[in-house]
Every structure is written in C-alpha cells, then in structure tokens.
Amino acid sequence: PRKRPGTQAHQAAQLAWWTQQLGHLRLEQLTPARLTACRERLTETRAPATVNRYLAVLSHACTVAIQEWGWLEASPLRRVRRRREPQGRIRCLDDAERQGLLVACAQSPNHLLLPVVVLALSTGARKQELLALTWREVDWRRERVLLLVTKTGERRSVPLTGRALVELQTLAKVRRLDTPLVFPRRDGRAPIDLRYAWQQAVRQAGLTDFRFHDLRHCCASYLAMHGASLVEIADVLGHKTFQMVKRYAHLTEAHTAQVVARMTAAIFA
User: Fold this and answer.
1) Model pLDDT for residues 35-92, shown as the tens digit of each residue
2) Whole-prediction pTM value?
3) How far apart are CA 246 and CA 7, in angstroms?
4) Which helix (H) or strand (E) holds 157?
5) Contact 39, 55 (CB under 8 A)
6) What SS3 class is residue 217?
7) Cα distances (Å, whole numbers) of residue 16 to 20, 21, 22, 48, 113
8) I need a labelling partner for 16 at 20 to 30 A (CA). Which of 149, 178, 219, 220 fits?
C-alpha cells in the first residue's frame, strides 16, 4: 500500500500470476527447482527484463516473510538465477529529426505538447515527472524546477535554461488560476493526457520507432556528446547507480580522450 499506484497495479498482476502457480503450496515446498520451472514458463512468453521483475516481486515478498514475519529462514530465490537482460535501447534524434519533431509539436492543436517535449529534451525528466509538475515547484530566481513525483521516490532538482525556460515563461503568462498544475487537463483536476497529440506529432514528423521516453535518452546522449561525464549524466537524470548510464559511455569517449590529452601535455611538457 505504500507503493505508487502504477507500481501497485503492475505488481498486483505479477503476484496474481505467482498465486496461480504456487498458491496451493506450503512455504516449505517453495523450492529452487519449482521456482526455476516457473522462471522457464515465464521465459516462454515474456522478455528477460519482465521475467526478472516477476522474480523480484516474489523475492521481496520472501524478504518480508523472513525479516518481518519470521515465516522463512532463507529465501529460496537466492538460488534462482535471473535472466540476462539486453542492454537498454538508445534511440536518439539527429538534428533534422529533432527539428522536425519540434515543428510538428508547435503545429499541434494541443498547445501544451511543445513545452512538455522541450522540457523533456532539456532536462531528461520522465513524462510523469513533468506532467505532475506544479507552479510552486518552479524556482524562477534560481532557474530550476523541483521534481517531486519521481520514479525513485526522491526529489530531484534540474536546471531550467534556454528554450525550456522561455517555453515555461511563455506558459506562465497565460497560466490558469484554478489549478496548481503546469500542464492540467481541461477540468484542472489532473495532468493532461498527451498520448494522442504526441502520436500525431510523431507521425507528422515522419519518425519511426520513437517513443516519448526516448526523449530522455536524447537528453542523456546530447549531454554525453557535449562533454558531460557519466557522473554528471546520472545526476541530471536522477539515476542512483551508473548501471543505467553505462549505455552512454561510448559517447563520452571523445571528451575523455581530450581530458587525457590535456593532462599528458601538461605533465610531459
């Protein structure tokens, strides 16, 4: 109950699957062999990452049973190997694609689409993080926005500069006073649903295999190509570990080579 609604919905479905497979067993019958067989059944119809999520939610349940309820001495899942996950995809827009998308967003009947897309490209924030934004979380003096609703559950502050700042300033001039949301739907009670407008803009721009979440990858890629380190990229995107930003390592190689070249030139001058 303390998890986010979206997480509850996903994990409830996963736990229902486990209940169907293993719910008739006693805990003492929850063996690695049975769990491995279930993992293989999952593998037949689900991607490796999804299989691992199923295993993770059951592992969490076992951990609670061990630490809080005293029902188990050890988790049988510790002896069940996870599936190897492929490296996450990177779909980055080139200059022409990016310009085409921005033009299509500007021409959209939905006037909120363009500022949301510009903010996503500029900050690397997720769609739900942006749509949950309120005007109280916009710090005009420091030119930053504070993201309160994040995937990790931790607050994150991101810079607001350039085109993103201009778009938000323009939107603030005509902001609605009946809602605190920066991107409200018509009744102002919840964030706007941009799915249809986004799909229309993607089609108009002629983009293929491009999703809204790929804007986050674009931001990270642009940061890497302009000299940001993996530490800096992780800080902007709000990643707790470097595992997620390793996919951008090859884009930072040129910058790293320049750093090493400056260092060797200095010490061997």
Assistant:
1) 999 999 999 999 998 999 999 999 999 999 999 999 999 999 999 999 987 766 678 8
2) 0.70
3) 25
4) strand 156-159
5) yes
6) helix
7) 6, 9, 10, 19, 37
8) 149
pLDDT tens-digit profile of 163-217? 999 999 999 999 999 999 999 999 989 999 999 999 999 999 999 989 999 998 8
For residue 155, give the amino acid letter.
Answer: R
Q: What's CA 32's distance to the chain center, in Å? A: 32
Contact 105, 113 (CB under 8 A): yes
User: Cα(269)–Cα(260) distance, rounded to whole angstroms?
Assistant: 14
Of 141, 140, 112, which Cα lies nearest the Cα of 127? Answer: 112
Number of residues that make up the chain: 269
- Under DSSP, is residue 186 helix (H, G, I), strand (E, B) or coil? coil
Q: Which residue do the tokens 């409830």 mark?
A: 12
For the chain, the first-to-last Cα distance in angstroms comes to: 63
Cα distance between residue 122 and residue 115, in whole Å? 10
CA distance 232 to 238: 10
Strand order in the sheet with 138-139: 138-139, 144-147, 156-159
Q: Furthest-apart CA pair in the chain: how many Å?
A: 74
Residue with tokens 């884009």: 251
Give residue 210's identity as a one-letter amino acid code. Answer: F
Question: How distant, in Å, are the alpha carbons of 69, 138, 163 from that of 145?
Answer: 42, 5, 14
pLDDT at 152 over 70: no
Encoded tokens for 31? 């063996």
